[in-house]
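Worked example 2:
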Amino acid sequence: MVICYIAIGSNLGNRQDNIKIAIKKIKALKDTQILKASKIIETLPVGGPNNQGKFLNGAIKIKTNLSALKLFESLKKIEIDLGRKKTVRNGPRIIDLDILLYGNKFIKSKKLIIPHRKMFERDFVLRPLLELI
């Protein structure tokens, strides 16, 4: 099994419930266990439209037998199931799930880049991640 770290964020609707439901759905993924969850922090949006609300952000540490691509596809399906719709880049969203780290692998494809390319530039990603590591 591979240890992975996933960033979770929400700034639409009931943000806390969106995150709880997403974590529950991740926990239900085949061959996947949640090992630890960070505290949830409230942060200002970075980039995107100026009129969006604050985010709740956190991270989880999981253990999975899913490949990085299968995990990515599963997370995107959870986003869609929760009602995420593609709008403007960095725009408001019901849920955002990003793979930050997948074991010690470096992956660069059209669909997936791991480690997440902007995680070291974003305090709202680093703070929860550091809590888990």
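The chain has one domain: 2-132. The chain has a mean pLDDT of 90.
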